[in-house]
UniProtKB/TrEMBL annotation:
This is Hydrolase. Its EC number is 3.-.-.-. Residues 5-147 form the Isochorismatase-like domain. The gene is yecD_2. The keyword Hydrolase applies. Keywords: Hydrolase.
Length: 184
């Protein structure tokens, strides 16, 4: 059986209601991510946390050293779980993520976190391109309303479009309950 790891992407304080960049459905997504973290811990499988910080204090959120850039309490890492600091959308870019996965012989990735249309999309596509078998847990991811050319796209539609796209060619896309029941 191939070794898998749970990748917990950017579940950070600024994405929650009191933060600088709140997401729609972030509480439910974080609760589902916490369930998956516990399941991976219980089965002795690898959990890797990703934490995004921009490099400038003028960033709209995740400013360097801020409390908003810290992992949210619902998904805090244990001492034996690495936290990968990134500065780009793609969690593999200029980080040690791939080296950590290789060190543990990981072949399958389970991805949860924020934002569906940015960092979840970025890490999933990159992981598939690197040869990992990827599963995205759609109800453990969150996003926000977007605007393009004067049109507001509701978060639910943004999320659905990205999950559909990832499910077409890059990953299996399932719910938390489906994954925990063994349907991947």
């Amino acid at each position: 059986m191939a070794k898998q790891a749970l990748i917990v992407v950017d579940i950070q304080n600024d994405y929650f209601p009191s933060g600088k960049w709140p997401l729609v459905g972030v509480e439910t997504a974080a609760d589902n991510a916490a369930r998956l973290i516990q399941a991976f811990r219980d089965s002795g499988q690898q959990v890797v946390h990703i934490r995004h910080e921009f490099t400038s204090d003028s960033a709209p959120f995740f400013t360097p050293g801020s409390s908003g850039a810290q992992l949210h309490a619902k998904v805090t890492n244990r001492a034996d779980e690495p936290v990968v600091l990134k500065h780009f959308v793609n969690s593999f870019r200029e980080t040690e993520l791939e080296a950590i996965l290789d060190q543990h012989g990981i072949e399958q990735l389970v991805v949860v976190g924020s934002m569906s249309h940015m960092c979840i999309d970025g890490v999933t596509r990159a992981a598939a391109d690197l040869g990992y078998d990827v599963t995205v847990i759609h109800d453990a991811c969150a996003t926000r309303d977007l605007e393009f050319n004067g049109v507001v796209v509701p978060a639910a539609q943004v999320h659905a479009a990205f999950m559909s796209s990832l499910g077409f060619a890059y990953a299996s896309v399932v719910s938390t309950d489906e994954f925990l029941a063994g349907s991947r």
